[in-house]
Amino acid sequence: MKLTKRMLQFAFLLLLSISCVLSSSQPEKPFIQCLLHQSDDPTISNIIYTPKNSSYSSILNFYIQNLRFTSPETPKPKLILTPVHESQIQAAIYCSKIHGLQIRIRSGGHDYEGSSYISEVPFLLLDMFNFRSISVDLESQSAWVGAGATIGETYYAIHKKNSSFSFAAGNRPTLGIGGHISGGGCGPLVREYGLAADNVIDARLIDVNGRILDRESMGEDLFWAIRGGMGANFGVILAYKIRLIEVPEKVIAFKVRRTLEQNATKLVHKWQFVAPKLPRRLIVLLKIDSVVSNDRSGGKTIQASFLSVFRGDADELLQVMEEYFPELGVMKEDLKEMSWIQYFAFYDDHPIEDIVQILTSRVSTSKSYLKAKSDFVQKPIPEEGIEKIWEKLFEEDPLAAQLQWTPFGGKMDEISESETPFPHRAGNSFIMFEAIFWNGTDSSLAQKHVNWIRELHDVIGQYVDKNPRGAYADYRDLDLGVNNVGETSVEQARVWGETYFKKNFDRLVYVKTRVDPDNFFKNEQSIPSRLAHFSS
Ligand SMILES: Cc1cc2nc3c(=O)[nH]c(=O)nc-3n(C[C@H](O)[C@H](O)[C@H](O)COP(=O)(O)OP(=O)(O)OC[C@H]3O[C@@H](n4cnc5c(N)ncnc54)[C@H](O)[C@@H]3O)c2cc1C
Ligand SMILES: *[C@@H]1O[C@H](CO)[C@@H](O)[C@H](O)[C@H]1NC(C)=O
Ligand SMILES: *[C@@H]1O[C@H](CO)[C@@H](O)[C@H](O)[C@H]1NC(C)=O
Ligand SMILES: *[C@@H]1O[C@H](CO)[C@@H](O)[C@H](O)[C@H]1NC(C)=O
Ligand SMILES: *[C@@H]1O[C@H](CO)[C@@H](O)[C@H](O)[C@H]1NC(C)=O
């Protein structure tokens, strides 16, 4: 038989596709070869975990904070790498490109949708927990913090150097620096100092070409993008340099709980007018859940917890509350004096004496099955609206659902929408966090709760600005839209992208196209590159 050119071409294509199939089913083998070969570091084999390794599962699960994603059905990484040197990350990026393994990067593992450790395509998990050095420099009032450090470790390291300083970031001590800051980072100092991302002064990152860049060498566009635009779009964050914030030796906190019988509806309504206007040294946030009640038909009531910390003294706080929010009836007995860091124990109902252990423990004690969503609220929700939310909360078991409303105002009103990728500034009174927690692996149970929170989100949707309805990137929600497994057009990504970033989405696309044109760093909601070619 005479081989025609066409037949040869066909045979070649066939071979090519067979070898593609082979290599995509086991891309980790040549990858490991490449890694060993690339790196002149003989210890690199100590950071490679394959599924056969007896430590693989415990390493994978240690930083999975949402138990939904510990199920056997959840796609698992072909490999876990736990780098200790920057050169190992450079080698991993190089070999991933060659052997077609996607990289997912994990710092603290709190991603609500598990995007830091799950992918539908063969992938490796780059687990950054060894990059957790923290060096505090009091003279320049700044600190370099490794991506794999937790915010709790950071708070404690700063406190130990000088308890008059802290950092503006989130509430939960186990949050990872790498994910938290690169997506924004909102906590008790937000009304005076903005987000964690607003307090970053330098950063170190490894880009798709393996270059180690700092603020100066990465340029202002990329430095802008990794302060709220989600780091995993652009490279591997190694560390952030953060600005320290001065806090008093002692602060005053309170937690006042009011049920429906104690006028919770009216108080929550009023809170919306008051909380964004309070002095900046004061934050009063709201945690709302339904609880068991013997006084009401149905056996449940709503409990609104007004949780506050004030950087001033007790008498002044009582005066301020009397002036702005007398209906809440905060009394001297409600006030507790504590150090700034102790507030992070108080926030979560832990004994404040345990604070050092709480800040330094990397083990999360409150893992759950959960689904979360977010909103930004511009105009106060009317009382009827609040009652509709209560009705919805009553459909779930007591304590299963939780809303947390964190007031903005103050500094947040002064930062322009384009200053960082996080656009939800002036005009937004508060951010609403909506979550449902459950226990158990049953997937129909999970579906029931997920459906419920989508319905709750629809109810809340009547009271917030749409076009686009806002959402917070650090509270990732795949219901907002996802990318294709292959390439995704800018217009398709805009659907979810503008909810998080509004007009800043286009600048993020511009930066992405410049720094990662082939779209190597990918996830369900990664910023697309305009240059990546469509193969399907
Ligand atoms: C219990 C809980 C409490 C929370 N409380 C708050 C709060 O008070 N305030 C608030 O603002 N948010 C809060 N969040 C949300 C939290 O800020 C985000 O989930 C954040 O992204 C977590 O960062 P991480 O490093 O822990 O998570 P990861 O899951 O490790 O990472 C999250 C995202 O960042 C990427 N990423 C991680 N590390 C790197 C890196 N080194 N380089 C590049 N990309 C990286 C990941 O790939 C992923 O896309 C909370 C979340 C949970 C689960
Ligand atoms: C698991 O991997 C670690 C790090 O690579 C290695 O030290 C260890 O020997 C491996 N254990 C097994 C059982 O393969
Ligand atoms: C901590 O910093 C404060 C404010 O700058 C300063 O007054 C104080 O002396 C410092 N304390 C220590 C122990 O260095
Ligand atoms: C509820 O509010 C009303 C006034 O609107 C007031 O008279 C009443 O004392 C309040 N109840 C409680 C328990 O605070
Ligand atoms: C899940 O179980 C734990 C431990 O039994 C319990 O404390 C928690 O309240 C439960 N959570 C929900 C949402 O049912």
TrEMBL record:
The keyword Transport does not apply. Residues 1-23 form the signal peptide. Pathway: Alkaloid biosynthesis. Its cofactor is FAD. InterPro entries: BBE, FAD-bd_PCMH, FAD-bd_PCMH-like_sf, FAD-bd_PCMH_sub1, FAD-bd_PCMH_sub2, Oxid_FAD_bind_N. Belongs to the oxygen-dependent FAD-linked oxidoreductase family. This is FAD-binding PCMH-type domain-containing protein.
